[in-house]
Amino acid sequence: MTNTNATNGKEAAYHGVPAEEAYGYAQAIKIGNTIHVSGQLSHDENGAMVFPAVLDESGKPADFSMMEEQMRVTYANAAKILAQFGATFDHVVEDTLYVLDVDAAFAVAGKVRKEVYGTLQPQVASNLIGVPRLGFPEQLIEIVFKAVLPQA
To answer: Residue 89 phi/psi, 5° resolution?
Structure first.
């Protein structure tokens, strides 16, 4: 994991996974006191999918039972990126969950999110959006975050 400073006032954070270079993006950008976190997913430090979904013969997820596990790892990866800027989930003001199966995600999201944010009523604007496809075939969820640090 690394941070870089650019001359345009942006600070970028990276996990150091192959997709960052292949696709060409930063995991997060901080400008001023606002942090914009790119879609996080369930991968390890090498970029390999953790708790991958079982695929059917056409290469699409056939089983969504790994939703909770993927969601937990996704939030853990977001925590690592936020920490590079000295932020925690207390600083998150919005999260958007992109999922392949809304019912499977909704069934576990409340429990996982309450644990992650450490309260029964997280003070976070949130969206749960069903999509037809995500970046990797075995991927069931991707989460985008916006965080705001206190004014210096």
So the answer is: -65, -15
Amino acid at 81: I
Q: Where are the alpha helices (DSSP H) in 84-142?
A: 102-117
Torsion angle, alpha carbons of 96, 100, 106, 109, to 10 = -50
Do the strands 141-148 and 34-40 form a parallel or antiparallel pair, or are they unpaired?
antiparallel
Contacts of 31 (CB under 8 A, 6+ apart): 9, 10, 11
Q: Which amino acid is at 76?
A: A
Please give the structure tokens belonging to residue 61.
């997820």
B/e letters for 64-96, b = 16+ CB within 10 Å, e = fewer, are bebbbbbbbbbbebbbebbebbebebebbeebe
d(CA 43, CA 77): 8
Beta strands per DSSP E along 10-140: 10-14, 28-31, 34-40, 92-99, 125-130
Which residue has 């991968």 as its token pair?
Answer: 43
Q: What is the pLDDT of residues 33-48, one digit of tens each?
A: 999 999 999 999 999 9
Task: Enter the tokens of residue 59.
Answer: 């290469």
pLDDT digits (tens, 9 = 90+) for 96-107: 999 999 999 999
For β-strands 10-14 and 92-99, DSSP reports them as: unpaired
